[in-house]
Write a structure and sequence with these properties.
The chain has helices spanning about 25-40, 50-55, 100-115, 130-140, and strands at about 15-20, 60-65, 70-80, 85-90, 120-125, 140-145, 155-165. By secondary structure, the chain is α+β, with helices and mostly antiparallel strands. Bound molecules: coenzyme A.
């Protein structure tokens, strides 16, 4: 397990782990845990099949647990495509919000991508998700596109981008 490094500070008793570091025998139960976790936080239309996603080589998942337990409190899913990384999913359970956990996850991803020679992190976010937009703005993301009805009638999506080298 590892903490997020100099940019973010995880609350005490909270640890961060890349799924790549989890033993293969644990991945099936983690896939089930992630699916259950995200069912509570996202509409079913954007649900991932983690059994499938975990087999893809360019998918990365960063997990946050309560230390010494298998209790998942937050996660981030990304996909690396050459010099670009797509941030697909990010969530923290309600009881652990506003403690800096999501910011640590984004910082960790940014550091990993910088080390790996990736230049940009991009994502789509629902315009109505104010906490997420505030988080991404606080991490330095800039709006580069806006699409109406992207998530369904009346639901606008915003595309955000972060220049990894500059942050
Ligand atoms: C968005 C979300 C991931 C933020 O997680 P979090 O762990 O609470 O975020 P952090 O504590 O790291 O917040 C870092 C900064 O983001 C901003 N922020 C986060 N939540 C905010 C809120 N509810 N209102 C205003 N600003 C907020 C603040 O600037 C905050 O810093 P501060 O607490 O020092 O003011 C969480 O609210 C969540 O899981 N929401 C549901 C799922 C979702 O919308 N995911 C993103 C779309 S993919």
């Amino acid at each position: 397990m590892t903490t997020a490094g100099p940019m973010g500070t995880l609350p005490s008793g909270i640890v961060l782990q890349s799924i790549a570091a989890c033993p293969p025998k644990d991945r099936e139960s983690l896939a089930a845990k992630l699916a259950k976790f995200e069912k509570k936080l996202f509409p079913s239309s954007v649900a991932f099949d983690y059994g499938v996603e975990l087999k893809k080589k360019n998918i990365g998942i960063i997990l946050v647990f309560k230390e010494g337990t298998q209790e998942l409190v937050a996660y981030l899913v990304y996909q690396r495509q050459k010099s670009l990384a797509w941030l697909h999913k990010l969530a923290t359970i309600e009881q652990e919000r506003r403690k800096g956990i999501a910011k640590c996850l984004v910082d960790f991803l940014r550091q990993q991508m910088k080390k790996g020679g990736c230049q940009t992190i991009v994502l789509w976010v629902d315009e109505a998700r104010d906490p997420a937009r505030a988080l991404y703005a606080s991490c330095g993301f800039q709006q580069i596109e806006r699409l109406t009805n992207y998530y369904g009638p009346g639901r606008t999506a915003i595309k955000l981008s972060l220049d990894v080298a500059q942050h």
